[in-house]
């Protein structure tokens, strides 16, 4: 019998990059981050938002994602080699959130598309930093996927895991990409595009609802809205760093190797968290 081929392992710097990515992708409970700031469970605060407001939020989110899809397809600059300007993006998002916090939910249709576009630009910079070629449609749509990867699947608080979520999104992205290549970028109403937009918007909408609930708390007024938006921006930047670090490692070692190592490390990380919770 031939001896089994030894499993491929990562170089030490890449092992560290994988572990950072797992921390970014596995410890991303946005409601918990907001609860640390607000001092109370966000689920309780969300009951203060009427159902009609939630429906309005969903419509605003879908429009914001469609706008970001247009930006991703047409106008992200692929040439710059500068490192991601995380602080500048967070400051701009904080200013935008301050306006939203001052005027409340009424400002959401104006503020959210601005903040979401700022986030997409920040995500694109992170993608470029990790070696993505933003001249390709696939890399640009991977930036849009981050909005969904930073939230649980709609209708469930169960964590399906990074790779399970990514598999669904990749299928939807591939269908949309084929349509864009065949018919051009203008057709954003086709069912293939609608599936991607709906999946991203429904997941992203859960986080937007949590953010809106926290912003509505009469804690610090506009300052509170700015702080919540900083948390909001930083949350998705962390998810982007984890996502594109994994994609970079896959280009280096192959997707099957990285997924096997991810699953091993992530399982240990989840076990440690369960032990800490007792």
Number of strands: 0
Query: What percent of residues are in strands?
Result: under 5%
- Helix amount: over 70%
Average pLDDT works out at 77
- How are helices and strands ordered from N to C? HHHHHHHHHHH
The radius of gyration is: 19 Å
**Helical region count?**
11
Q: Which structural category do the helix and sheet elements fall into?
A: mainly alpha
Q: Which oligomeric form is depicted?
A: single chain
- Low-pLDDT runs of 5+ residues are 1-6, 91-95
Rough outline:
globular
Largest sheet: none
Cα-to-Cα separation, first versus last residue = 46 Å
Q: Give the total of domains.
A: 1
Give the topology, please.
Layout: H1 12-26, H2 30-38, H3 42-46, H4 51-74, H5 86-103, H6 108-129, H7 137-149, H8 162-183, H9 191-215, H10 222-253, H11 255-277
Please, could you describe this protein's structure?
The protein is mostly helical and 278 residues long. α1 crosses α11 and α9 crosses α10.
């Amino acid at each position: 019998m031939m001896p089994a081929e030894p499993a491929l392992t990562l170089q030490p710097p890449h092992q560290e990059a994988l572990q950072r990515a797992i921390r970014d992708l596995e410890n991303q409970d946005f409601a918990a981050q907001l609860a640390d700031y607000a001092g109370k469970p966000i689920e309780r605060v969300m009951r203060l938002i009427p159902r009609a407001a939630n429906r309005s939020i969903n419509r605003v989110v879908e429009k914001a994602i469609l706008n970001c899809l247009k930006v991703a397809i047409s106008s992200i600059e692929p040439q710059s080699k500068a490192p991601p300007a995380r602080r500048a993006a967070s400051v701009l998002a904080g200013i935008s959130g301050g306006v939203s916090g001052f005027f409340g939910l009424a400002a959401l249709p104006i503020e959210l598309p601005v903040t979401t576009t700022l986030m997409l630009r920040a995500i694109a910079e992170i993608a470029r930093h990790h070696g993505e070629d933003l001249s390709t449609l696939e890399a640009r749509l991977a930036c849009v996927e981050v909005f969904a990867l930073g939230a649980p699947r709609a209708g469930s608080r169960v964590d399906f895991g990074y790779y399970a979520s990514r598999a669904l999104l990749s299928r939807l992205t591939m269908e949309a990409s084929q349509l864009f290549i065949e018919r051009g970028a203008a057709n954003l109403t086709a069912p293939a595009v609608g599936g991607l937009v709906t999946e991203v918007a429904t997941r992203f909408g859960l986080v937007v609802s949590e953010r809106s609930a926290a912003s509505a708390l009469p804690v610090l007024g506009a300052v509170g809205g700015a702080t919540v938006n900083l948390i909001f921006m930083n949350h998705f930047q962390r998810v982007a760093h984890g996502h594109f670090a994994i994609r970079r490692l896959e280009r280096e070692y192959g997707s099957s190797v990285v997924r096997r190592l991810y699953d091993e490390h992530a399982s240990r990380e989840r076990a440690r968290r369960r032990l800490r919770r007792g």
